[in-house]
Amino acid sequence: MKASTIKMLQSKKEQIIELWMENQMEDPTLREDLMSNEDLRVQSIELIDTLLHTLNEGNSTQVESQDFEPVFEILAGISLSRARQGYTPRETATFIFSLKDAIFSVLGENISDLSLLNQELLEVSKLIDSLGIVTFETFIQGREEVILRQTDEIAEISTPIIRVWDGIIALPIIGTLDSARTQIVMENLLVEIVNSESSIAILDISGVPAVDSLVAQHLIKTVSATRLMGAECIISGIRPEIAQTIVHLGIDLSSIITKATLASALRQAFTMLQLEVTKVRKDKKV
Amino acid sequence: MITLNRDRLLIHKDQDVVILRNRVKEYATKIGMGLVNQTKLITGTSELVRNMLRYAQGGEVLIEVVSRGRENGIRLTFSDRGPGIADLDKAMQDGFSTGRSLGLGLPGTKRLMSEFSIKSAPGEGTTVTVIKWKNG
After folding, report:
1. Which one in A32, A126, B28, B131 has a CA-CA gap of 20 to 30 Å to B122?
2. Tens of pLDDT along A260-276?
3. Distance in angstroms (rounded) separating the CA atoms of residues A266 and A272
4. Which of B21, B38, B101 is closest, CB to CB, to A213?
5. Distance in Å, alpha carbon of B14 to nearest chain A alpha carbon
6. Which of B39, B102, B104 sits opposite A210 (nearest CB)?
7. Is residue A139 a part of any domain in this protein?
8. Same-domain pairing of A98 and A216
9. Is the pLDDT of residue A285 over 70?
10. ipTM over the 0.85 cut-off
């Protein structure tokens, strides 16, 4: 871009901002519910200021250059905060692309040489397109952060430990057991064994969709760790189809006490603790 | 053998395992596969796709609904551009693993599936093709 053009844009900054704000206001996708017009204006002015300040004759065609770092930083901030506030990608993209129209009309008004105008338009267009791409990358990054946080939360809530009896704890596992989940499950389980002074832990895998060799390996590790703590571990909730699959796969779970249902696991636990559950007879004669 | 339906999935991260498993389950349910065979198919899928992620950092899975005579089935093709397997005979043995796992993935999957074939050479990646027939 010619130095004269950049200077002209800098001097017309106010006009660009007004045009840009107008464009944004007219857009039907404007989200007044998420951000006040005042905040939007502050954001827009900050971006334009930094952009026009950074721009010079040498770097206008090299968006990858270090010079644009501050512009990218502002854009990243705006688009991250928008992702968290719940803006759609279209709304965020419109924010940056509506700037193109504003700069185009200022360029059109002030440059009379057609070939120069053509060239400058192309350059501005390219520049704003790459800014748009940066906005997108960070927008998606923001969304991914939200997803990651939710994944963590799901991992947290899906491993509750239940005290079923004095000395017996149960842990229903729901969903796929991967390395990260196993780590959480094992940690919680071992801590709870100490806290509740339990000697028997029941791991219920009714909610695990498939038991492959990795899941089995994780289960075996968890059982070994429980045994090291001096407690016994029973695995319950083994469905018929899972039992067949485990046998075909060739996984050896014979060293582990396994039961089909949580009820039979509990019964086994009672036997191990020498407890007995009996029916109370109301018509007992004295 | 006739291919009735075809679906391709790219595998890059752990979460893709769940997506693939659900997709395979969908197709298996559609052709009316029983629960036991379905579980075998899904478990085998899970083994192979985990291998792919662990040793080749991902790859591609082709899911096909195939038909031979009166029998329908699911054919899965797992291809990656990973380091490949140097000794296939050894890899197909129970309890052999280069990655500190149980070493049951490949031989176990062979037992779970109706048909199993593997092609691999060091530096050329690995392709595993399996078929599970509806009643096989």
Report:
1. B131
2. 999 999 999 999 999 98
3. 10
4. B101
5. 9
6. B39
7. yes
8. no
9. no
10. no
Q: Which of A104, A138, A154 is the last residue of a domain?
A: A154
Residue located via tokens 């796709």: B49
**Lowest mean per-residue pLDDT among A26-30, A106-110, B58-62:** A26-30
The three-state secondary structure class of A128 is helix
State pLDDT tens for residues B78-111.
999 989 898 888 888 888 888 778 888 899 999 9
Q: Residue A176's domain is classified under what CATH number?
A: 3.30.750.24
Inspect the interface and report whether the beta carbons of B111 and A250 lie closer than 8 Å: yes
- Give the model's pLDDT for residue B49: 92
Pick the CATH number of B2-133 from 3.30.1370.100, 3.30.360.10, 3.30.565.10, 3.40.50.880: 3.30.565.10
Q: Where are the domains of chain B?
A: 2-133
Tell me the range of A50-59, A130-139, B115-124 where mean pLDDT is highest. B115-124
Q: Nearest residue of B to residue A212 by CA position?
A: B43
Which candidate from B18, B35, B102 shows the least CB-CB separation from A251?
B102
pLDDT in tens, A196-229: 999 999 999 998 888 888 888 888 888 999 999 8
Q: In the listed set A154, A187, A208, which residue is the last one of a domain according to the structure?
A: A154
Q: How far is A226 from chain B (nearest CA, A)?
A: 20
Q: Which positions in chain B touch A213 (Cβ < 8 Å)? A: 47, 101-102, 104-105, 108
A111 falls within a domain: yes
Question: Given its phi and psi angles, is residue B123 left (phi above 0), alpha (psi -120 to 50 degrees) or beta?
Answer: left
Instruction: List all residues 6 or more positions away from B82 whose beta carbon is below 8 Å from its beta carbon.
Output: B52, B55, B56, B57, B59, B125, B126
Cα distance between residue A196 and residue A231, in whole Å: 12
Q: Is B109 on the interface with A (CB under 8 A)?
A: yes
Same domain, A167 and A146: no
The model carries a pTM of 0.65
Cβ under 8 Å to A: B residues 46-85: 46-47, 50
* Backbone conformation region of residue B125, classed left if phi is above 0, alpha if psi is from -120 to 50, else beta: left
- DSSP state, A260? S
A193, A226, A235 from A201: Cα distances, Å: 8, 8, 9
Answer whether residue A240 shows pLDDT above 70.
yes
